[in-house]
Amino acid sequence: MGLIIGLVTDVTDLLSGVVAKLSQQNTNGSSLLGTLLFPLIAFFLTNNPLPNGTPWGTLTDWGTNPYTEWPRTGVIRTYDFTISRGVIAPDGYHRDVLLVNGAFPGPMIEANWGDKIIVNVHNNITAPEEGTVVHWHGFLQQGTPWEDGAPGVTQCPIAPGKSFTYEFLASLYGTTWYHAHYSAQYSGGVVGPMVIHGPTQAKYDVDIGPVMLSDWYHKSYYDIVKEMLAPNGSPRVFSDNNLINGKMNFDCSTVAAGDTTPCTNNAGVSKFRFQKGKTHRLRLINSGAEGVQRFTIDGHTLTVIANDFVPVKPFNTTVVTLGVGQRVDVLVTANAGDVYSAYWMRSNLSAACTPARQPLALAAVYYDKADTNKGPTSKPWNIPDPGTCANDDLDTTEPLFKMPLPTASTTQTMAVELFKNASDVTLWKFDGVSMRANYDNPVLLLANKGNFSYPTEWNVRNFYTNSSVRVIVNNKTPASHPMHLHGHNFYVLHEGAGTWDGTTIVRPTNPQRRDVQLVRPNGHLVLQFDPQPGVWAFHCHVAWHASGGFFSSLVVQPEKVQAMHVPEKVQQTCRDWSAWTSRNVVDQIDSGT
Ligand SMILES: *[C@@H]1O[C@H](CO)[C@@H](O)[C@H](O)[C@H]1NC(C)=O
Ligand SMILES: *[C@@H]1O[C@H](CO)[C@@H](O)[C@H](O)[C@H]1NC(C)=O
Ligand SMILES: *[C@@H]1O[C@H](CO)[C@@H](O)[C@H](O)[C@H]1NC(C)=O
Ligand SMILES: *[C@@H]1O[C@H](CO)[C@@H](O)[C@H](O)[C@H]1NC(C)=O
Ligand SMILES: *[C@@H]1O[C@H](CO)[C@@H](O)[C@H](O)[C@H]1NC(C)=O
Ligand SMILES: *[C@@H]1O[C@H](CO)[C@@H](O)[C@H](O)[C@H]1NC(C)=O
Ligand SMILES: [Cu+2]
User: PANTHER family, from UniProt (predicted)?
Assistant: First the structure.
């Protein structure tokens, strides 16, 4: 019978599934995330994340302004990434994917606050060839906007066979991820976790590392986008499964008749080890394409200590909601049972806002002496989904480093709308325009040369020298959208149903700050940002919505952008791209981002 009913009502179905029927290599390539080996291997293989103890010295998460001050460590962390095609079966269903160094999820990047990160990205996507671009989510890229990795905005795509070496400062710390930003490519597998160690007032004993939550699709991203953007296609894309650290079981009997793709039941779920009595830090990342995740661990309370790259006053809860792109760091104390105990970790896609065929992701949490060949028998918390498709209340989490809301010098209202174009293709409009990127002419390079007039379909807004920009996002669609602004942590002033009353601001003395915030269906989101010179993508992080045109670029402090010295490698990447496109036709099936 259907997995949806089977899994949720009767967890015993899964008992056999704890003994993985596929090897880790088959499900996740060279990634060890999700296995009990990960913490050990991570310890030995990392780039020496903490060579000199804590290089941030007396800087703290509550007293240091991270936007103006960070440690000058002089340490460089170097990584080499090759993006290639491959075949894996994260949930037992075999799929053509794109992998970073043969791994899904891709290798973890680890550094200290203030280190420089260098990643040489090599495009080895062949048969067929495809461009690529990698974005380092949440980094401010102060003075280096060309390292941000947004095609048509900050750079030309990396041509097949070519490389681009990204170099940027980890000026913020905490948990984040990298992902491809070319078309909806990241949902095809080009994603990986990033951990930047920094000061923390919160006390914990064990760092469990990344816990990546991602909806999963059995079709390739290309076929999904092609189908969605066909005449009379649907903007609602159903996921097939939900993964924790790239793993989950799947009921192969639910595969459509006639689909002969190899599929194995009980491929294997992710496993974690907890130490009885100890407090563990879990770094939750919603690295999916579309779904709103609701994360819980049976029998355990979660203490939220950071939202995105922003440490917050500890707040206890049983469930944490994450829209795509969001991260939440939680502490969990293993105090629910004895050393032989085991519990289910669950991440459930919110049915109210997420089209999902199998919404519930499971992973097993084992205390010290628990038998890891047996499935936990724990029961889920009884916490009904409020169905608002919004983030948890803004007043529950307050940034540790206090920043009062400055006076806005301008306010821009941007509506979100769905429409059908003249070919009956359903697309998104953001502030009146359905965006289509031009891969050959990144806005940043034109701005750097003093050209600030662009075709309408690039959807660029210039904020000149404004000291603080307020943006009201009016969502006139029945879907929720995780709004993401590159290069900034924005203040979240208000979020709710209908339109904003124009005055109510949640905690103006110290509003929530982060880099992604959900706007609910037919609701509003009011955010504000202090300018950081550059050209920055501002878009919905749902891969399918961005593909459908829900994307804009903001020019911030144009004179400063014009005065920047953009390294030669950025122009070289455009020349390489131009050479490749003169011999190949670029199949730009969507907005390009
Ligand atoms: C490039 O990709 C091909 C598969 O498409 C693979 O066989 C080869 O090993 C990859 N090269 C590198 C350096 O990863
Ligand atoms: C949160 O829960 C922990 C136990 O899990 C408790 O020690 C702590 O005092 C609680 N914190 C708050 C802010 O309620
Ligand atoms: C998961 O969500 C589905 C609907 O999206 C709901 O029916 C089910 O009860 C939830 N399961 C758990 C364990 O919360
Ligand atoms: C409608 O949108 C699709 C997808 O972006 C595009 O291929 C097509 O050319 C558009 N049709 C018109 C008439 O603009
Ligand atoms: C600015 O760039 C756009 C897009 O490439 C181009 O159409 C326009 O002619 C340029 N304007 C100037 C003044 O060069
Ligand atoms: C602020 O931004 C608006 C666009 O929203 C622009 O019209 C205005 O000139 C800018 N003001 C300053 C001082 O740069
Ligand atoms: Cu969206």
Answer: LCC1, MULTI-COPPER OXIDASE
